[in-house]
Amino acid sequence: MEDNSEPEQSSWAHLPDVCLRHVFHWLDDRDRSRAALVCKKWSWAMYSGSLWRSRTITFYGRPSRTRTLEFQSALWYVKKFGKYLEHLEINLSNPYNTAFTQKFQVTMKGLLSHLGKCNSRLVSFSINYLELDRSIWKNVVRAQFIKNLATFLKRMSKQLDYLNLKGARVTLEEGCELLSSLSCLTNKSFISEINIEDFFSLQLPVYSSTLFHQTMSKFHSLVILTFNYNCISNELLDILQEHSAHSLCALNIKCHIHDPHGQVVWGMSWANLAKRAPKLNVNFFFERVMKHDHLARILLVEIPVRSISLRSCYFSDPDWIMRPTLTNLLPAYWHVLQKLTLELNNGHELLDDELLQLILSCKKLLFLKVWAFLSVAFMERLLQNRAERKCILTTIKVRIYTARQETSEEDRLLCDIYRKFKYLIDSELNYFVITYPMV
């Protein structure tokens, strides 16, 4: 007898579209392409816009057989699915010669050109660590890339809400050209977040540039601005007060030893901005700027500082005396400071008492990260004070430097301390403490 019944279908054939898209969401490009060949329904799922809203494209500088098609696949992706993009991040990893940067520039020209024509949804664009000041960028290639990027930003200016050009390392004129592209259509930009940390070349006194001030005056609704201290001036603070005080929530400021940071900024300028922008929090990140007199010129009492990070980056200098910073400077923020990061090579200076007193004085301090020469007893004293509710820390991350290679005794003491405060640590703290030989 002939069997005319339909072959039994897999349960996958009846999977609802929303579930199928969720499965595709977890697949990489190659697996998605293969899955799309299964049937028409799966092929349609492949072209669901929700799968292609966010994209990270990384170009690796070091050649390998598995990475030879990166440039072609990046273009293929944008031509196929670029119209769905809402968030795009492009990373450049270890570019190593002029041939690579030239190929990257040509690829980006096609990618940005096509995206500028087909996309009306992009709200977030990030392109990190271009390092355009390196010799691997020929002048003509660099100029062409900046021109293409400026054209793209101009086309996207009405829809972009977030721009990250961290590590671009451009000249003052190039940087202002790129930033001005966001406002050239209407002479105003309402983008809410910009990251221009390490955007300008090293050692540029951007703070004194009229061109930079004119460029920044075009931004009228900034919420978050991330940049370097060499951009800070009374003029910039006045501009932010005039145009973005109603929206401004965070200034993330990096201060590096090789960037100019000796300019005079008035406390009154900070006070006026803080008064007009009541939601403002300022986060400072210092790298190898450790001298008290330098820090005192920057960390004015009028600044609403939420977070401070002081990193020596394993360097040591006898002029870096941290005691006055911990006892005189940072306590001024006792009512606002919530996050403190200290990475110190302080072998010449014991700071247990000063650091503990600072922590206890900061009534809103929630996060503590310390890499420094400390005694193990410091941890017991800190946890005892936390147990007695004399501070409100919720995160404690400590690396105790020691001048000895053998740390078994310190490790044993830390284990004893953990057992003593086990209930507190397990129930209330994000806690991580280790010893680290510095020999």
From TrEMBL:
It comes from the Eukaryota. Pfam families: F-box-like. CDD domains: F-box_FBXO39. GO terms for cellular component: SCF ubiquitin ligase complex. Residues 9-55 form the F-box domain. InterPro entries: F-box-like_dom_sf, F-box_dom, FBXO31/39, LRR_dom_sf. One of its GO terms (biological process) is SCF-dependent proteasomal ubiquitin-dependent protein catabolic process. Keywords: Ubl conjugation pathway. This is F-box only protein 39. It comes from Antrostomus carolinensis (Chuck-will's-widow). The lineage of its organism: Eukaryota, Metazoa, Chordata, Craniata, Vertebrata.
